[in-house]
Each structure stands twice: as C-alpha cells, then as structure tokens.
Design a protein that fits this description.
This is TetR family transcriptional regulator. There is one protein chain. By secondary structure, the protein is mainly alpha-helical. The protein is built from 10 helices and no strands. The longest helix is centred in the middle third of the chain and has 26 residues. The protein is elongated.
Length: 193
C-alpha cells in the first residue's frame, strides 16, 4: 500500500471506500462530491480537506483498486508453486477469472475510467497507465522466469489476451471469454518453449 494510502484518516478511508463503490457502479462523471460526502456521512469540506479535489480522489480510487488487483494476482500466482514455470503465466488468467466473478459486474474499472478521463495528466489516467504497465512487466517477469523465448513479445501478447477477456467477458457476447483467452495463452506459451 502506498504511503499516502497508509496515512488516511478513518473519515478519509470511508470517503475513499464510498467513492470507489459509487464511481465503479455509476461512472466517475455521474457521481458528484455532494453524493460522495453525504453517502460517507461527512461534509464536502471534510472531503476536500482530505483529498483536495475530486480528481485526486479518482486517482486514489484507481490506485487503491490497482493495489488490490496486484495483491490478488501475486497471491494467486504464488499459491501455484506446484505449477511448472512455463505454466505460471496462465495463473494470471485464473486470477482474472476469480476477480471478475467476485468484483467486476461492470467490467474493468480502469477501462471504464479511461473512457471518462480524456486528460492525459489527470491523476486517474496516471493510475490507469501504472496499472497496465505493471501488468505487462509482471507478465514479462513470469515469462522470463519460465525461460521462454522472446519475453517482451510474448508478454505483450498475453496482456492483449488478458485485456480482451477483461473487456469482453462482462458483455456476455463470448461465453467463457477468460477461459478462451487462457487457452489461447496456453498455445502461445507452448510455442515459445
């Protein structure tokens, strides 16, 4: 957890938790600071005192979600100690499937937020870019640890499959999108041996 997140007061934690639910369920632009403050049981002044702006709050919401995602992925992969190194990247797809079943009825929070935040300097856009870069780097590390050929290219392909499944699954057009992406990823890993 980032140092900023670790130092949040109980009221700030409550604001962030409420904002996260409201932003994810309704969209960032559809949720105003008045709704966040009243739902969290604080004043708008308290919200601004703790976060400074709605933009900062959005950035922290996405950063917190990213921290939770990273922890979930690492935990899933680390539990897979009996899995051969060449198969460990597939555990990321298992993590995604579980995450989506438990937490994402509206799809990827980062993709949804990206569509709402056109300004590249927005704190939320910075958090989104950091999340996607981390995922690519993590996949590259797993591929390197497995000793597979061309880790940069392979990690990029795995990220594309992962992101495609993340966006496609909640729409429901392609049944078992994550499982299908995982099967394609398996073929890529086999070919890279």
């Amino acid at each position: 957890m980032s140092e900023t997140m670790a130092s949040l007061t109980p009221a700030a934690e409550r604001i962030l938790r409420v904002a996260a639910e409201l932003f994810y369920d309704n969209g960032i632009h559809a949720v105003g600071v008045e709704l966040i403050a009243s739902t969290a049981g604080v004043t708008k002044k308290t919200l601004y005192d703790r976060f400074g702006s709605k933009d900062t709050l959005v950035g922290m919401y996405l950063t917190r979600r990213d921290e939770n995602w990273r922890e979930h992925v690492r935990h899933t992969v680390e539990r897979g100690t009996r899995v051969a190194p060449a198969r460990r990247p597939l555990l990321v797809f298992d993590a995604l499937e579980q995450w989506m079943a438990e937490r994402t009825p509206r799809g990827c929070a980062f993709v949804n937020a990206h569509a709402e935040l056109p300004d590249g300097d927005h704190p939320g856009r910075q958090a989104i870019a950091a999340q996607k870069r981390w995922m690519l780097d993590y996949l590259r590390d797993l591929v390197r640890e497995a000793g597979l050929r061309n880790p940069r290219k392979l990690a990029g392909a795995l990220l594309l499959l992962l992101e495609g499944a993340t966006v496609t699954a909640p729409i429901g057009v392609l049944p078992d999108a994550v499982a299908a992406a995982r099967e394609l990823a398996k073929g890529l890993l086999d070919a890279a041996r």
